[in-house]
Amino acid sequence: MPHPAMVCSRRYGSAPRRACALVVALAACFAAPAQVGAQGAKPAAEAPAPGAPLPGTGGAAGAAAAGPAGAGAGYHSPSSPIAPLPQRNDVVPWSVLTDLTKKTTKDRIVPMFNDAQKGLDKTTQRIQGFMVPLDAKPTQTHFILTSVPLTCSFCTPGGPESMVEVKAKTPVRYSLEPVVVEGKFTVLSNDPYGLYYRMVDAVPVK
Q1: Whether 62 contacts 77, CB under 8 Å
Q2: CA 117 to chain CA centroid, nearest Å
Q3: Alpha-carbon distance 179 to 101, whole Å?
Q4: Is the distance from CB of 204 to CB of 179 less than 8 angstroms?
Q5: How far apart are CA 4 and CA 17, in angstroms?
Q6: φ, ψ for residue 34 (rounded to 5)?
Q7: Residue 67 contacts residue 54 (beta carbons within 8 Å)
Q8: What does 93-114 look like in DSSP terms, one character per residue?
Q9: In degrees rounded to 5, what are phi and psi of residue 133?
Q10: Distances from the Cα of 97 to the Cαs of 44, 139, 141, in angstroms?
Q11: Cβ density class 68-96: b for 16+ within 10 Å, e for less
């Protein structure tokens, strides 16, 4: 079965298709303001590492305990047919990327990056994640990596802190299995799409 973003791409043609898929991938970014309290900054929720079930929970109960949809690190249900990310020591852990707080200004939500996240800016890094394609092709040069797999056509399992936009130098084959890429990592404090992280000149890594 093709990925929902690919179906969207075929239906709407070349020019709008990336925007259509990007809207699907970034729906959480626009829903995020409703998740932030009136006090402004919201502490990062204590959640298990991406891919790990919550102790003593599972299914809908585990997802509810992990936090609201479209926010935080995301939740990988133990009943998912897609296996969690395997342990690797050569990639940036998602726990580093998702451990941040946000504050609300008059017109947007601002990520408050910590020292570890700032230290990744403009450095060469490796990221492992699940691919959200932005084009109807078997190989992708522009896509989103997420910490946990998408659960439906219009759902994002986590917030923008659980996503990395990737612009690849070498095309990367679409797969439901985890993908690893290496490239120049950038931390984004004021991206128009609400993204927090981007990687450019990326190449696939085994």
Answers
A1: yes
A2: 15
A3: 27
A4: yes
A5: 12
A6: -70, -15
A7: no
A8: -HHHHH--EEEE-SS-EEEE--
A9: -70, 150
A10: 11, 26, 22
A11: ebbbbbbbbbeeeebebbeeeeebbbbee
Read off the tokens for 92.
């940036």
8 Å CB contact between 199 and 186:
yes
Q: Per the confidence metrics, is the pTM higher than 0.90?
A: no
Consecutive 10-residue averages of pLDDT for the chain (206 residues): 43 41 45 36 40 38 48 83 93 96 90 97 98 92 93 72 96 94 97 95 96
Whether residue 162 contacts residue 147, with contact meaning beta carbons closer than 8 Å, is answered with: yes
Strand partners, 187: 197
d(CA 161, CA 189): 12
Please, what is the end-to-end C-alpha distance for the chain in angstroms? 24
Which residues, including other chains, have CB under 8 Å from residue 173's CB and lie 6 or more apart? 138, 139, 140, 204
